[in-house]
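Before going further, learn to read the protein records used in this course. A complete example follows; check for yourself that the lines match position by position.
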Amino acid sequence: MGRYIIRRTLIAIPTLIAISFVIFLILDLAPGDPTAQLPLTIPPDVRERLRESLGFNDPMLLRWLKWLQQMAINEPLNMTEQIFGITIGDSAERTRILSWASRAPVVDTIIERIPQTLWVLGLAFIFGIIIAIPVGVISAYKQYSAFDNIGTFISMVGYSVPTFFTGLLAIVIFSVLLGWFPSFYSTTHSVDWSNWDSIWTQIKQMIMPVAVLSLFNAAALSRFTRSSVLDNLNEEYVRTARSKGLRENRVMFRHVMRNSMIPVVTLIALQIPGIFAGAIITEEIFRVNGLGQYLITSIQGADVPAVQTLTFIFAALTVLFNLVADVTYGILDPRIRYD
């Protein structure tokens, strides 16, 4: 297993380099640069000097190599210094990826917004898993029962209805008509864990966005779990286990569940990067100041460095959790060997 992880990690390095080049190339070909946001009264020669100082007149390959150095070396070194309070090399001369819009380091802005994303999307992801797996297993075990039919109906509705509709519907019903919850998420609220009113305020503003995303996540995962469990319930090894007189709980949890979770783990692992990417639509509806809203704002403002950095981070997380899913295969199924 150790050699497999090392081999996959070494393969991931050129993969991420190729991904970074494609991302940089596509966004570099897109129209727009920082000088486009400047007032029209600024003379053309001043605009040109600004472009020269920012390196926009350099060849594309050279600018990509500079950005890759900043992303792969400079930013990790800065994060290490901030976390451990140490100094590595000449940090004052180390260039960073700066936002065209705010002129602030993009990675610092991302770190500031991660807690908001994890509060809402992380909890929605966890609750979705907690709901989906039991519902999927029970639906498969009691196929065509009332529980299965109701679960199928709710799953179909939850997955087919877009989150912008369910989000707006939740705001209209529970915020406008009933007045139970706030209509938007206040990112300025600082939770005081010693004050129950502060905790309750945070819970109330999280309920609607978390519920909307939990329904969407649980709908897809429960159907996938149900299908996987049904496939295994009809296998020969299940009939053999039952014919040996094993208790039904042991058959389900020791044999069926363990094999059924292999494809489910894949889906869960590949959905984890989506937590950091953020549910863009839901964050916009509930005004959650997370990574998803940062991405859409950067796209609308033609903030290319921010879009490049966010897209590359999401791609790196996808590659990482693909490896996590493969390693988990070997844990769940002893028949799978990588060495």
